[in-house]
Amino acid sequence: MKNLANENQPQDTKPIKDKLELAMEDLLEGLNIDWKIDPNTMETPKRVAKMYAEELLGGRFAEMPKATVFPNTKEVDELYTVGPIPVSGVCSHHFLPITGFVWIGIVPDKKLLGLSKFARIAQWVFSRPQIQEEATAQLADALEDILEPHGIGVICKADHACMALRGIKAHGSKMTTSVVKGIMKEESSKSEFLEFVKGMEF
């Protein structure tokens, strides 16, 4: 998972935003939009640069949120599920938004994760340019590294703007991806997880 914060890069996004702002100016000029005098687009390069660097692709420039882990003192060994968690990112093929939800199932071992951290880590993973299949697998890997559970499952259901706004223009079409690891690969655990998620969908 490409993350510049792990490569001894400065976490200050100002130099990145400056480059993005110049690139957006070039894009607007390439589209024959006179952004320098149009009040509606005068600040667009700055706004777009901030949006990409701090929001849509913010996961690339920030370290993973601190995971608050608690000991599993009651030795809970049953499946628990968290979701739907809203996530958003950018498709690496066309740089158009991906928006959707993830559901996470855990069969814990010795560690439990603070509930809000599931959402923070999920959004951190998804907020970078990538394909949904890889993001789903990366989220499962990240949580497995933190919790070392007996089993983990992640399901993502998302809308892709590249499907709705270009090409076939399939409005309302969604993509669902899933990853199961450990004992969640067993048919009984997988079925239980899927049944939980079914009951939690909108």
CATH topology of the largest domain: GTP Cyclohydrolase I, domain 2
Mean pLDDT: 91
CATH architecture label name of the largest domain: 2-Layer Sandwich
Class from helix and strand fractions: alpha+beta
Could you walk me through the main structural features you see in this protein, from its secondary elements to its overall organization?
- With 202 residues, this protein is of the alpha+beta class.
- The protein has six helices and seven strands.
- It has two domains: 57 residues, GTP cyclohydrolase I, N-terminal domain (GTP Cyclohydrolase I, Chain A, domain 1); 132 residues, GTP cyclohydrolase I, C-terminal domain/NADPH-dependent 7-cyano-7-deazaguanine reductase, N-terminal domain (GTP Cyclohydrolase I, domain 2), CATH 3.30.1130.10.
- 38% of the residues lie in helices and 25% in strands.
- The protein has a five-stranded mixed β-sheet with strand order 5-2-3-6-7. Strands 1-4 form a two-stranded antiparallel sheet.
- The model has no long low-confidence stretch (mean pLDDT 91).
Kindly summarize this structure in a few lines.
The chain is of the alpha+beta class.
